[in-house]
């Protein structure tokens, strides 16, 4: 503080000595003396003659270093022969040559309140203070003899003093006290370990009752479901993760049984809507043979298209056919409809050749084309409309688009269609069973991201089928 004030106020030696005397009176119990040292090593005080400290070890150390201060080793005061250490502090920047340093002498006795049971050694390794053994008369030798006698009974701890180089603190504790602490620690550890083990054992029992037992119960229920029991359900009484797991399992069973029932109902309905194929094929062949005999070429082409339509739509038991076969099937249907609606209907079919061999679900396009004819093209009897079917690849999926420029779908009707397509059950009166069947069969086969999308804007109604490009087992 004095050095900082001297720097800020640019005190000369006389002004600094006045402040030094005030501090010395205020802290007379801590400081033996406080003096002002000039640039040439002369130490000044208001109450005695100046003397030189140029040959003092601590003065030489401070002059040879850039440190802000140094602390001397133990020396004797010239005033009262008391043991002291001197703190020599640098005033930087230096303004006056006669006020370059401040030297504060601290008596060893003043360190007793700080040191207590700690031994303080100076940079030479000499004992500065020991509360229990130190006495000015006996000096260090009495302490050394006592420490040698008790060396095997004492544990010594040494730590350096960072702010004072080469100084260190040494603290000794009897081994009996350390062992006493170790014994207490061991007993405490045994006690804590026993209590922890008992609590852990109780937790294991609670864990078995709250987690393991419900999981085993759920495992048994799953085994019964796997064996074919459709009436059993998991317990939902638990208000934790086990309860959530049971409720999710029950919801999964409900959805699974629901989808199985829907699939059976749909298959039954499709079967009921089919005509006995062999009888139909034979009848069509007979009609075609009779028409050819009478030279009715248009009737022959119509019967041929109808025969192709039924053979591809009803023939075989495989659920999947190639995209090329599906296009042939819908083309035969369009040829038949063009005979009926020659004045108002035309069509085009486009698909990439590399997609022709990809497998798709049977009977996907005909329901969409039928819907487009009867709801989009047929109402506009005074104009000719066009149905366009194209297929392309996008984001590793196959998109099949059925477009027509006939009567657009109203906004209210579009909302009803979108809601019906997002529902898991078909309700008569909302949308036709054909549209629902196509969308629902895609979702059942490929999963929720796939299905049918319907849009109507700018005079064009678009129905898009999205299914994975990779074949599914």
How would you characterize the overall build of this protein?
- This protein has 473 residues and is an alpha+beta fold.
- Helix content is 47%, strand content 21%.
- Residues 133-139 have low confidence and may be disordered.
- The radius of gyration is 52 Å and the shape is elongated.
- Strands 1, 2, 3, 4, 5, 6 and 7 form a seven-stranded antiparallel sheet that branches. Strands 13-15-16-18-17 form a five-stranded mixed sheet.
- The protein has 13 helices and 18 strands.
- α8 (277-293) packs antiparallel against α9.
- The chain has helices at 2-9, 13-26, 57-63, 112-115, 139-149, 175-227, 241-273, 277-293, 297-314, 323-340, 365-377, 411-422, 433-446; strands at residues 33-37, 42-44, 51-52, 69-71, 75-76, 83-90, 101-107, 119-121, 127-129, 154-160, 168-174, 320-322, 345-351, 359-361, 385-394, 397-404, 451-457, 460-468.
- The longest helix has 53 residues, at 175-227.
Radius of gyration from the alpha-carbon trace, in angstroms: 52 Å
| Class by SSE composition | alpha+beta
The residue-averaged pLDDT reads 82
Q: How can the largest sheet be summarized?
A: 7 strands, antiparallel
Q: Extract low-pLDDT stretches.
A: 133-139
Extended strand count? 18
Give the % helix.
Answer: 40-55%
How far from one another are the termini? Answer: 88 Å
**Percent range for β-strand residues:** 15-25%
How many DSSP helices? 13
Shape: elongated
List keywords for this structure.
alpha+beta; seven-stranded antiparallel β-sheet; 18 strands; 473 residues; five-stranded mixed β-sheet
Write the layout of secondary structure elements.
Layout: H1 2-9, H2 13-26, E1 33-37, E2 42-44, E3 51-52, H3 57-63, E4 69-71, E5 75-76, E6 83-90, E7 101-107, H4 112-115, E8 119-121, E9 127-129, H5 139-149, E10 154-160, E11 168-174, H6 175-227, H7 241-273, H8 277-293, H9 297-314, E12 320-322, H10 323-340, E13 345-351, E14 359-361, H11 365-377, E15 385-394, E16 397-404, H12 411-422, H13 433-446, E17 451-457, E18 460-468
Parallel strand pairs: 13-15
Antiparallel strand pairs: 1-2, 1-7, 2-3, 4-6, 5-6, 6-7, 8-9, 8-11, 10-11, 12-14, 15-16, 16-18, 17-18
């Amino acid at each position: 503080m004095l050095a900082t004030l001297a720097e800020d106020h640019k005190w000369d030696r006389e002004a600094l000595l006045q402040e030094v005397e005030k501090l010395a009176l205020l802290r007379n119990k801590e400081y033996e003396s406080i003096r002002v040292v000039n640039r040439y090593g002369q130490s000044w005080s208001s109450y005695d003659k100046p003397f030189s400290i140029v040959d003092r070890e601590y003065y030489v150390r401070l002059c040879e270093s850039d440190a802000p201060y140094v602390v001397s080793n133990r020396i004797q005061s010239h005033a009262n022969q008391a043991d002291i250490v001197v703190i020599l502090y640098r005033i930087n920047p230096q303004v006056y040559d006669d006020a370059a340093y401040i030297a504060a002498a601290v008596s060893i006795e003043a360190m007793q309140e700080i040191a207590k049971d700690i031994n303080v050694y100076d940079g030479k390794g000499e004992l500065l203070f020991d509360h229990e053994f130190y006495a000015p008369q006996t000096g260090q030798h009495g302490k050394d003899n006592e420490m040698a006698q008790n060396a095997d009974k004492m544990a010594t701890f040494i730590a350096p003093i960072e702010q004072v180089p080469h100084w260190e603190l040494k603290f000794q504790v009897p081994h009996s006290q350390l062992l006493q602490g170790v014994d207490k620690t061991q007993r405490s550890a045994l006690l804590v370990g026993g209590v922890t083990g008992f609590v852990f054992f109780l937790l294991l029992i609670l864990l078995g009752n709250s987690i393991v037992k419900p999981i085993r119960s759920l495992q048994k229920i799953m085994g019964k479901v796997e064996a074919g029991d459709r009436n059993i359900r998991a317990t939902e009484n638990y208000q934790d993760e086990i309860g959530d797991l049971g409720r999710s399992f029950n919801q999964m069973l409900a959805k699974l049984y629901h989808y199985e029932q829907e699939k059976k109902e749909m298959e039954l309905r499709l079967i009921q809507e089919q005509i006995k194929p062999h009888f139909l094929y034979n009848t069509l062949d007979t009609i075609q043979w009779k028409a050819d005999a009478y030279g009715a070429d248009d009737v022959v082409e119509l019967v041929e298209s109808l025969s192709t339509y039924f053979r591809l739509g009803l023939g075989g038991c495989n659920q999947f056919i190639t995209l090329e076969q599906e296009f042939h099937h819908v083309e035969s249907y369009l040829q038949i409809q063009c005979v009926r609606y020659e004045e108002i209907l035309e069509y085009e079919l486009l698909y990439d050749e590399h997609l022709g061999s990809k497998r798709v679900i049977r009977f996907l396009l005909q329901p969409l084309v039928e819907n487009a004819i009867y709801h989009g093209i047929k109402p506009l009897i005074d104009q000719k409309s066009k149905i366009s079917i194209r297929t392309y690849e996008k984001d590793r999926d196959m998109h099949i688009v059925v477009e027509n420029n006939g009567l657009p779908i109203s906004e209210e009707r579009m909302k009803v269609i979108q809601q019906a397509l997002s529902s898991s059950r078909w309700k008569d009166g909302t949308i036709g069973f054909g549209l629902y069947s196509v969308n629902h069969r895609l979702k059942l086969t490929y999963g929720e991201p796939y299905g049918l999308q319907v849009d109507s804007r700018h005079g064009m109604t678009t129905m898009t089928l999205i299914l994975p490009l990779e074949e599914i087992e």
